[in-house]
Structure formats: structure tokens, C-alpha cells
Design brief:
The structure holds 2 protein chains of 2 kinds.
Chain A (H helix, E strand, L loop, with lengths): L8 H33 L4 H50 L9 H42 L1 H25 L1 H23 L1 H6 L3 H53 L5 H13 L7 H22 L20 E8 L9 E8 L4 E5 L6 H8 L7 E6 L2 E2 L5 H5 L2 E4 L10 H6 L7 H10 L3 H7 L15 H14 L9 E5 L7 H14 L5 E4 L11 E6 L2 E6 L1 H6 L3 H10 L20
Helix pairs in contact in A: 1-2, 1-3, 1-8, 2-3, 3-4, 3-8, 3-9, 4-7, 4-9, 5-7, 7-8, 13-15, 15-16
Chain B lengths: L5 H6 L1 H36 L8 H50 L8 H43 L1 H10 L2 H36 L1 H6 L3 H53 L5 H23 L1 H19 L19 E8 L9 E8 L4 E5 L6 H8 L7 E6 L2 E2 L5 H5 L2 E4 L10 H5 L8 H10 L3 H5 L18 H21 L5 E5 L7 H15 L3 E5 L11 E4 L11 H9 L1
Parallel strand pairs in B: 3-8, 3-9, 6-7, 7-8
Antiparallel strand pairs in B: 1-2, 1-4, 4-5
Helix pairs in contact in B: 2-3, 2-4, 2-9, 3-4, 3-10, 4-5, 4-9, 4-10, 5-8, 6-8, 8-9, 14-16, 16-17
The chains are: A alpha/beta, B alpha/beta.
Chain lengths: ~600, ~575
């Protein structure tokens, strides 16, 4: 992870230098002061001390200034590195499969916080150890010059307190850290259950039991934390013990040296106060070491992304098929892993320009996988997708997306204004165009009420209602590429998902009115309004089981007719062998 | 920014105990710091004048040994203090967490904050208290004790140095307050900007598929750099001010120490001070300033901890205390339920969710409630479940007012299948048993069979013992609905076994389902309603055949339909 900071190496080196200067000035201040006082006790002429007097003040100022510089320089460098890392992670994500790998919002959040963790590492984990190394070496050198055993003792004390102890504490903390994470996630799960499930729990009188589970999880977490406290306490105690014993050893050696006549009072004072002040140098290191484990895990996840190969590859050119306008899908097969069943198992689909087709089927039947292939989010494992006679796998994904656009599943509404969200599809679109497309999806009134094109929509569009969000995404899809000679093929993946029936029908009506005369692939699990489409394709378990117009499919038995019957619910379903619902004797 | 939230001290015993323990440890530590300084000064001063001076060889050896004793004592104290502080932090967190959870689950009404936010607050949010309780508070205590103790000792040894320290020491809190006062407004302003710029990256990564579709994915990389650079500039602006204040404090402290050093050096030179006193003052002077500076350095820990405590107390002080259960005997058998002019306005809302509803639920009949989104269909069920009480009109059960009945006892008669039933990360059997934890396996199986859920369970790897994962994620929406129906069947059976007529409440049972699942759910639901008092809330008209009565709720605000999802979310979140 440190490798990520290499482009900003000079800045980090400057930061480390400033940090070392600050720490060294702090230690030197006490040492010079000790010399000053010890020397003054011998009552030399004032001029002999004036240098030391000036030096103490200079050191005081140096320390403050250097510390300030260190903080500013390292934070600046870390934030610059953060920009580099974010761009790299993003660029890599954009080239790997954007949908399925990071489907879970939780994973995305973790990835983003992993990226941002580099900043923390670089500030706390990089410069303090470097500064400690430089300053520690300096302090040991001074001590050694005064009394060799004293220097050796200080060196050993600093190594133990600054390197061995933090590393040992970090290693010892690893297993409890895992237990802590497990206890914490158990608490989150029970808590989420109690909060999200509150209506069900209260209605069924099970809230006390759920609360008891939360409190048991809390007790377990608290128990683990209290045990960890002992470990951390030991670390703090060992650190204090090392500092104290080093001081004691230095006193012992120093006094012996004075008695042996090797040392006088002045160097003794300097030696003792050096060892007293030197442990300030290693003070920030245990915190840095404790972070090592977390940082290593974050780094592994981050590099997992950075090393992922792209999901779509551009294949070598295949001769174009002339005179084949529209979309032609042949024998398309896709699966997500080598041993998985086929998500799409030999799908054929034809769509003439200006035609509209609905792809329907139960959930998990491969509808969205088909949309992903059309969006060039992933490559077909076999078979071909031809658009106007061109095999889409032989073109850059962005070149294909010029001709195929639309609405991916759960379209994202960005935390910005209505205008910016729309302009995504066509940068530089005029307000006139924007209002025009908003009118077509009947969102103009809503946007005007919300404050016009400059209205902020909030994170994930939270200030908009569900229907408004879908309409905004639809408007965006209609805007894309609409100025070309031929409008691109529209693929809409579940455009009415998460809407209540009222809103769903209204959005669907506006959608169908706005896409009249355009090529459209409508992926949906909803069977309303399909009579207005030219073709309906039924996908079950990755295969096309039925195709035809709404009227044709309704006329013959099969999945479509039975699904349509139950979804428009004219007849309750009867099942054999059990008491049956149906007519209840009394009428209304 | 208050350094210590008084509510935290008042309401949490663990915090009070912690403060006392911390103060005791702080006193002991201060004593040891003073002792060590005195011993070191004595040894260094005494070693050079051995024989001629005041210190004998034996006494010197004893003093050196005392340094080792102080070191061991300090280590022991550090271990104890750190352990105790972290344990207190764990206790305080546990205490607040339990109170928080009890408070928000006391009523079925929604808390003022979203569930996700509450979970974050109860876990990671409270962790901010670790640093606050275990590091900041002890430092605060030390900052109060150490400077005074040092000052007292230095004053006894050398009053001139004590005067210098006493004059410079108050400058540190003074400057801290001045700088803090000046930067606070600025920092607050910056904070929102920072949060927003920081959130941009997450927003973009989440929206990657959308960006890709519009061929904006590559262009966005340049934007990420631009926004991150803006973020850096804004952050550095804030940090520079914070660092500058730290710089001023550090400079103040260091220069004060330098002044003391020079002043005692000069007085030594003229023989007005002995070496031992001078060394003692020199060693102690930085110790007087250090705790105050440390408090400033832990400013972050303090703000985050206080902010976390404030968020907890905001939740704890929000909403009325849960009403004590009213002991009221329920009318036996299957009484008539009557709504007379019932209206409901949720707190904080201006428009009523439900107004002027008159309705009679005759025993053994099914009533279908229809109406556009936002007409109050789900609110009507909330009233029957006692999740809310009517704000006008009254609901009677037999001859008793519903509000007078014990809510828990009343709910034991209700079999409710919500629009989005919540399943728990427990076994299928335990999920079905939610309302009757002691129900035997046979009853669970019977309920599942009646709810058309037996084949769903049979397809699971461990049958009834299969864990369903978080929120029942192992199952599809239709399968979850069938498990919820099994729950309702079991409740109905339990109520009937106790001689009570159950009330069945179904909320949009098939609205979000695949056609295949909808059929099964419809069959099971109809079976559940036969011969029982029931209310079905449904948007589509397909339920008319199972209904004896139909109530159509009018659109509350013509021309501005509210989304039903939004309404549901209001009291289910």
C-alpha cells in the first residue's frame, strides 16, 4: 500500500524530515537545557553559556515550526495520494464488470472506505516511524558519544519500546480483533432485526425475546472488549516499564562512571535527561503498529480490485453482415462462473428498427443478464450479438453504447441537481431540451414544484419520490443520443421496479407514449400494458420458451397465459387436497 | 463545544465511577512523576559531589534503587489505569446501547431516526466514546491535577520559577479558547462541504453502471480528480487553522520551558540556586504544560465522542415515554369491531392519514379495503394493530374502547401479514413460531402446509431447520410471503385454542409478487380468511370474491397522490 504513495515520495520525505526535526528539537531542547544548568552550576563566565541560551530558544521555535510543517506537508501529500488512488480504483472498476461483482451496496461502501483508509495509513503509519528512526538514531549517537554503555542501553530500550513492543502488541491483538469483529457483527444483525422487524415483532409479541437477543449480543461484545482492555493495559504498562527501567539503568551506569572518574556531572546530566526525553520519540509508534492489521486487510481488498482483469475484451474483427438493420442475437450463452448453470442458454432475439419488444419471465430467469450483455457490461460466453450487422464484441464498449443506451437495473440518481443528472446523458444539453424531455415523461410539473432544474435531488435522489426517480432515469435514457440521425436502441431494465401499482401504471403509460416509434427492449417482470408492444419474449431459466404478440401468447396455453391470469387476478388459484378458498357463500 | 456532556455524567453510573477511578489514578501518577523528578535531580546533583556533598554512597545507591521502584510502580499504574479506562469505556457503551435499544423498541411507532442510522450509531457511532472515555477524560483530569501539583512543588523549591510557570500556564487554555472560538464557526461551515466532497467518490462508484451506459465513465475519472483536489484544498484550509492553533500552543509551552531553563541557568551561574533544585525545576517544567497540550491534541476525540453522546441523547429524549400497559380484560369470544368517525394524523404531519372512517367488522366476515395510494389503507391496519391510536373518533371492540385494552393481549388475537413481512436470520421453524415460541413441530408443519409454504420449505437444504439469512434473503418475496402466512396460521390456531376469535389482517398480500407466487399466496390467504373476521387491504380488485364487505377509501388529496411506499415506510421503517 505504501507503493501507492511513491509518486508523492518527495513530499512524504519532506514531511518525514520535518517530523524528525520537530522531535529532535524537542529532545535537544531538554538536553541543551540540562547541559546549560549542569554547566552553570560550575559558575563559568556568562559568555560560555550564551550559545546554549540562544540555542534553547531557537530549538523551541524550531520545534513548533517543524511540527507545523510536518503536519501540513504530510496531510497534503496524503490527500494528493488519495486522489491518485481514487482515480486508479475508479478507472479499474470502470473497466471491470461494473454490475455484478460489486452488486451489494455494502461492498461498494467498504471498497470506498478502503480507498480512503490509504490516507490514514500515510499520515499515521509512514512519517512517524521514519521520523522516530532518524531522531532515535540521533539520541543514541549523542548518548554513545558521552558514555558507550549508556548509548547501548538507550538504543536497546528504544528498539524494545518502539519496535518490538508495538509489533508484539499488534500480533497479540489480532485474534481478539477477529472476535471483536464477530461479536460486533452479531450485535448489528440482532439489532437490525429488532429495528427493521419491529412491526412484525410487536404484532406477534416477540419483541421481548428480540431485545433479549440484542442484550446477549451486547454482553458478548462488552465481554470481549473488557478482555481486550487487559491486553491493551499490559501494553501501556510494558511501555512505561521500559522507559522507567531505561532511565534507571542509565542512572546506574552513569553514577558508576562518575564514581570511576570516567564521567563528570555535566555529561551525566545530559545523558540522564536524554534518556528521560527520548521515549517521546517512540510514543506514536504503538498506534501505528496497531493499525497494521486493518491496513493490510484494506490493502488486500484494494489490490484485489486493482488486479482484476477487465470483464469485457475487444475481440478481433469479424466481417460485418451487410444489410442487416436492427438487433440480432444468436444462440447467446452466458454464465457467471465455470461451474455455474447457464444464466442465458442459447437465446435468439430479433428486433427490426423501430420495433418494441418486452422480455418477461420469472425472477432469476436471465432477463437482466441479457440487458447486461446488450449494455456491454459483460461478454457473451458464446453466441453473437449483432447490431446493424456489426458484432458488438468487436467494438469498444463505449462505441457500442453510442448505439445502445437506456436504463440499467436500479439506475443511480447522483447527489446533484436535476440538470446535472440529466446532462449526464447529453453534456451541454440546453434547458429547452431538458424541459422538453421532462415533459415527455411528465416530470416537468414535479421538477417545477421541487424548484426547477437546479433543485438538489439528495444522495440517491432521496428528495424525490420513487416514481419521480424512475421518471428522471427514463428522461435521461431518452435524452441519450437523441440528436443523431437515428436514435439509439433503448434497453430498459425493470423501469418500474419498487413502485406501487398506481405509480407503476402511470410511469409505464408515459414510458410507452414517449418511446413510440423507437427501438426498445423492455425487461420487466410485470405483465401490464404489454399489448402495446410489437413482440413479447418469455425467458424461463435462460431459455426463450415463448414468443409472439401479447394477443398470440394469450391465445395459447403456456407460461404467459397462466402468469397473466394470476397477475390480473380474475380467478383465485385452487389447489388440490386442502380446504379451498374461492366462493364464500355470501355475496357482497 | 462542551468538553463533558453533563447528561453523560448524570445519567450513566459507569461514567461517574470512571471519573473517580481516573482521578485517583491521576493523583497517584502525579505523585510518581514528582517523585521521579526529585530522585533524578538528587542523583545527578549528588553523583558529582559524592563524598564532599550531602549524599553518601549508600544513600545514593538507595536513591537509584528507588528510581527502579518508581518505574515499576508507574508501569503497574499505567496497566491498571489503561485497563480500567478501556473497561469503563466498554461499560459506558453497553449502558448507552441498551438504553438506546430499549427506548426505540418501546413503541412500535417509528423512531425519529432511520433503522440503518440507529444501528450505525449503536455500534460504530458509540465507538467514538472509546477514545473519549478512555483517553480524553483521563487527560482532562490530568490537565486539572498535574499543573497545580507541579506548581506547588516548584513553588516550594524555587518561587521565581514557579512565578514564571504560573504566569505562562494560563496562557495555554486562554489561547486554546480564543483559537477554538475563532475557528469553530469556520470549521462548521467547512464541515458540510467536506462531507459532500468526500461523499462524491462513493456516489460515483455506486453509479458506475449508469455512467457506463451514458459513456461518461471515462470522463468521470477526470472529475474524480478535480473533486478530490477540491476536497484537499478545503480540508487543508481547515487543517491549516487547526495546525496553526496547535503551533501557537506548542510554541508557547516550549518557549516557557526555555525561559525557565535560562532563568534558572543564570541564577545558578550567580550561585543563587543549587544544582539539585535547578534540575528538579528543569525536569518538572515541561510536565506542567504537557497535559494541557495533550488535551488540545485530543480535541478530535473529544468532539467525536461528545457528538456521539449528543446523538444518543437526542434519540433518548425524542418521542414520548412508552405508555404503561393498561390492564383491561378483553371481551371473550368474537366481538364486533366498530370504527366511529376515526381519524389519524401522524405526529409532525399536517394532513391526516385517515379521516372520518366509519366501519363495522362483523364477526366471521371479511372486509376488503381499497383505495388509491396514500388513502390510508395501511394506517387503518396500524390502528387495529395498536401501532397508533386514533387522533379522533373511537374504535370499539364489543362494548370496550380498543385503547383501554391491554395491547399485548389484544395483539395475541391478531394474525397480520404485512406487505413486506420481515423474516429473521433464524430457522424457518423459528420464523413461523414467532408468535408462539413453544408451538410443537407438528403445528409448525400444519401451518406451513395451510400457507402453501410446505413445498418452499421442502426445497431448502435443511428443511425446517434451514437458516434464512439476514432478512430472509435466502427466499424470494413470494416465498417470504408464504412463510409469513404460515406465521399467521399458527397464530390463528393458538388464539382459537385459547377460545378467542382471531382477527386476520392482510396488507397487499400479492402486490409485489411474480404471478406464480401470487397464485399460491392468494389461495393460502383465502383459506386463512374463511369463517374468520378479516380485513384485506388490496389495491387491485381481485379480492372482491373473498370479501363480504368493501370499503373504498377516498383519495385524501385529489391531484396529488402520495406514494404508498412512502406511507408504509413512514411507520414501518
Amino acid at each position: 500500500m505504501v507503493a501507492l504513495a511513491r509518486p508523492r515520495g518527495v513530499r512524504f520525505a519532506l514531511g518525514a524530515l520535518a517530523g524528525a526535526t520537530a522531535t529532535a528539537a524537542g529532545v535537544a531542547l531538554l538536553v541543551v537545557a540540562a547541559w546549560l544548568i549542569a554547566a552553570a552550576a560550575a559558575q563559568p563566565p556568562l559568555t560560555a553559556l550564551s550559545v546554549a541560551i540562544v540555542t534553547t530558544r531557537a530549538l523551541g521555535v524550531t520545534r513548533g515550526v517543524a511540527r507545523y510543517l510536518e503536519r501540513v506537508v504530510t496531510h497534503d501529500a496524503a490527500l494528493r495520494t488519495l486522489a491518485d488512488v481514487r482515480v486508479r480504483v475508479y478507472a479499474r472498476l470502470a473497466r471491470t464488470e461494473p454490475v455484478h461483482r460489486f452488486r451489494s451496496g455494502d461492498l461498494v461502501t467498504r471498497l470506498v472506505s478502503d480507498t480512503d483508509a490509504t490516507q490514514d495509513l500515510l499520515i499515521r503509519g509512514l512519517t512517524p516511524p521514519l521520523a522516530a528512526l532518524v531522531t532515535g538514531a540521533g539520541a543514541v549517537a549523542v548518548s554513545t558519544a558521552l558514555l558507550v554503555p549508556g548509548g547501548v542501553l538507550l538504543g536497546a530500550g528504544l528498539m524494545l519500546g518502539g519496535v518490538a513492543l508495538p509489533l508484539a502488541a499488534a500480533a497479540a491483538g489480532r485474534a481478539p480483533g477477529r472476535q471483536r469483529a464477530a461479536a460486533r457483527s452479531a450485535l448489528s444483525v440482532s439489532l437490525l432485526d429488532a429495528l427493521h422487524g419491529a412491526p412484525d415483532l410487536v404484532a406477534y409479541g416477540a419483541m421481548p425475546a428480540a431485545l433479549a437477543r440484542v442484550e446477549a449480543a451486547d454482553a458478548e461484545l462488552t465481554r470481549v472488549e473488557r478482555r481486550d482492555a487487559g491486553l491493551l493495559g499490559l501494553g501501556a504498562g510494558a511501555s512505561a516499564l521500559l522507559a522507567g527501567l531505561t532511565l534507571w539503568g542509565t542512572l546506574l551506569l552513569g553514577v558508576a562512571a562518575v564514581q570511576a572518574g570516567v564521567l563528570t556531572t555535566v555529561p551525566l546530566a545530559v545523558l540522564v535527561l536524554t534518556s528521560l526525553a527520548a521515549f517521546e520519540i517512540v510514543a506514536p509508534l504503538p498506534a501505528a503498529a496497531a493499525r497494521l492489521g486493518a491496513v493490510r486487510a484494506a490493502g488486500a481488498r484494494l489490490f484485489g480490485v486493482l488486479d482484476t482483469p477487465p470483464a469485457v475484451a475487444r475481440r478481433s474483427a469479424v466481417p460485418d453482415v451487410p444489410d442487416a438493420p436492427g438487433l440480432r442475437v444468436r444462440d447467446l450463452r452466458v454464465r457467471y462462473a465455470r461451474r455455474d448453470p447457464w444464466a442465458l442458454d442459447g437465446v435468439d432475439l430479433d428486433l427490426a428498427p423501430g420495433q418494441r419488444v418486452a422480455v418477461v419471465g420469472p425472477s432469476g430467469s436471465g432477463k437482466s443478464t441479457l440487458a447486461d450483455v446488450l449494455f456491454r457490461f459483460r461478454d457473451p460466453d458464446s453466441g453473437s450479438v449483432l447490431l446493424d450487422g456489426v458484432d458488438v464484441t468487436t467494438r469498444e464498449p463505449d462505441a457500442v453504447r453510442e448505439r445502445i443506451t437506456g436504463m440499467p437495473q436500479d439506475p443511480h440518481v447522483f447527489d446533484s441537481t436535476v440538470r446535472e443528472n440529466l446532462r449526464l446523458a447529453r453534456p451541454g444539453a440546453s434547458d429547452h431540451e431538458l424541459w422538453g424531455v421532462l415533459r415527455r415523461v411528465r416530470l416537468d410539473g414535479g421538477v417545477r414544484a421541487a424548484g426547477g432544474l437546479d433543485a438538489e435531488v439528495g444522495a440517491h435522489g432521496t428528495t424525490l419520490s420513487g416514481g419521480m426517480r424512475q421518471r428522471l432515469a427514463l428522461a435521461r435514457a431518452l435524452l441519450a443520443g437523441a440528436d443523431g440521425d437515428r436514435p439509439p436502441l433503448l434497453v430498459l431494465d425493470e423501469p418500474t421496479a419498487h413502485l406501487d401499482p398506481d405509480t407503476r401504471d402511470a410511469v409505464l403509460d408515459d414510458l410507452l407514449a414517449a418511446t413510440a416509434g423507437r427501438s426498445l427492449v423492455l425487461v420487466t417482470h410485470d405483465l401490464t400494458r404489454l399489448d402495446q408492444l410489437d413482440q413479447v419474449v418469455v425467458l424461463v431459466a435462460g431459455r426463450v420458451v415463448q414468443r409472439g404478440t401479447h394477443a398470440e401468447l394469450l391465445a395459447r396455453p403456456g407460461w404467459y397465459r397462466s402468469a397473466h391470469a394470476t397477475s390480473t387476478c380474475s380467478q383465485p388459484h385452487h389447489s388440490e387436497g386442502l380446504p379451498v378458498s374461492g366462493a364464500k357463500g355470501r355475496g357482497r | 463545544m462542551r468538553p463533558l456532556d453533563p447528561r453523560l455524567v448524570r445519567s450513566t453510573r459507569a461514567v461517574r465511577v470512571h471519573l473517580v477511578v481516573t482521578a485517583a489514578c491521576g493523583l497517584a501518577l502525579t505523585g510518581l512523576i514528582l517523585a521521579q523528578a526529585w530522585l533524578v535531580a538528587r542523583i545527578v546533583a549528588g553523583a558529582g559531589t559524592l563524598g564532599a556533598g550531602t549524599l553518601g554512597a549508600g544513600e545514593l545507591a538507595g536513591t537509584v534503587a528507588a528510581v527502579a521502584l518508581v518505574a515499576v510502580a508507574r508501569a503497574g499504574l499505567a496497566t491498571g489505569a489503561e485497563t480500567a479506562a478501556l473497561r469503563s469505556a466498554a461499560r459506558v457503551k453497553s449502558d448507552l446501547r441498551r438504553r438506546l435499544v430499549r427506548h426505540v423498541t418501546a413503541s412500535a411507532r417509528p423512531p425519529a431516526v432511520g433503522a440503518g442510522e440507529l444501528v450505525t450509531l449503536a455500534t460504530r457511532g458509540l465507538d467514538a466514546l472509546d477514545d473519549y472515555v478512555a483517553r480524553y477524560l483521563p487527560q482532562l483530569v490530568l490537565a486539572a491535577l498535574v499543573p497545580l501539583a507541579v506548581l506547588a512543588v516548584v513553588a516550594r523549591a524555587d518561587w521565581v520559577s514557579a512565578l514564571v510557570i504560573a504566569l505562562t500556564l494560563p496562557l495555554i487554555p486562554l489561547f486554546m479558547a480564543l483559537v477554538g472560538w475563532h475557528t469553530q464557526a469556520r470549521t462548521r461551515r467547512q464541515w458540510r462541504l467536506l462531507e459532500r466532497l468526500g461523499g462524491h467518490f462513493l456516489d460515483v462508484v455506486e453509479g458506475l453502471p449508469t455512467l457506463a451506459v451514458f459513456r461518461r465513465a471515462k470522463a468521470e475519472a477526470a472529475l474524480i480528480r478535480k473533486v478530490t483536489d477540491q476536497h484537499r484544498n478545503a480540508t487543508m484550509g481547515t487543517l491549516r487553522v487547526a495546525f496553526l492553533s496547535a503551533f501557537v500552543l506548542e510554541l508557547l509551552a516550549t518557549l516557557a520551558v526555555a525561559i525557565v531553563a535560562v532563568e534558572i541557568g543564570l541564577r545558578l551561574l550567580y550561585g543563587r540556586l543549587d544544582l539539585e533544585t535547578a534540575l528538579l525545576v528543569l525536569i518538572l517544567a515541561p510536565e506542567a504544560y504537557l497535559p494541557l497540550r495533550e488535551v488540545g491534541a485530543r480535541f478530535h476525540a473529544s468532539t467525536e465522542g461528545v457528538a456521539a453522546a449528543e446523538r444518543v441523547f437526542a434519540v433518548l429524549e425524542s418521542g414520548p415515554a412508552p405508555a404503561a400497559p393498561v390492564p383491561g380484560t378483553l371481551p371473550a369470544g368474537g366481538p364486533e369491531i366498530r370504527f366511529a368517525g376515526v381519524g389519524l394524523t401522524y405526529p409532525g404531519r399536517s394532513e391526516p392519514a385517515l379521516a372520518g372512517v366509519d366501519l363495522v367488522l362483523a364477526p366471521g366476515t371479511t372486509t376488503l379495503v381499497t383505495g388509491p395510494s396514500g388513502a390510508g389503507k395501511t394506517s387503518l391496519l396500524a390502528l387495529l394493530l395498536r401501532f397508533a391510536n386514533p387522533t379522533s373518533g373511537r374504535i370499539t371492540v364489543g362494548d370496550r374502547d380498543l385503547e383501554e385494552l391491554d395491547a399485548d393481549a389484544w395483539r395475541r388475537r391478531i394474525a397480520w401479514v404485512p406487505q413486506h413481512p420481515y423474516l429473521f436470520d433464524a430457522s424457518v421453524a423459528d420464523n413461523i413460531r414467532l408468535g408462539a415460541p413453544d408451538a410443537p413441530d407438528a403445528a409448525v408443519r400444519r401451518a406451513a402446509r395451510l400457507a402453501e409454504a410446505a413445498d418452499v420449505v421442502a426445497a431448502l437444504p435443511d428443511g425446517y431447520a434451514t437458516r434464512l439469512g439476514e432478512r430472509g434473503s435466502r427466499l424470494s418475496a413470494g416465498q417470504r410471503q408464504r412463510i409469513a402466512l404460515a406465521r399467521a396460521f399458527l397464530r390463528v390456531e393458538t388464539a382459537e385454542a385459547a377460545g378467542n376469535a382471531p382477527v386476520v389482517l392482510l396488507d397487499e398480500p400479492t402486490a409485489h409478487l411474480d404471478p406464480g407466487h401470487a397464485a399460491a399466496v392468494r389461495a393460502a390467504a383465502a383459506r386463512l380468511l374463511i369463517g374468520r373476521t378479516g380485513v384485506v387491504v388490496a389495491h387491485d380488485g381481485g379480492w372482491t370474491e373473498v370479501a363480504d364487505e368493501v370499503l373504498e377509501l377516498p383519495n385524501p388529496m385529489p391531484g396529488k397522490p402520495r406514494s404508498g411506499r412512502e406511507m408504509t415506510a413512514t411507520w414501518l421503517s
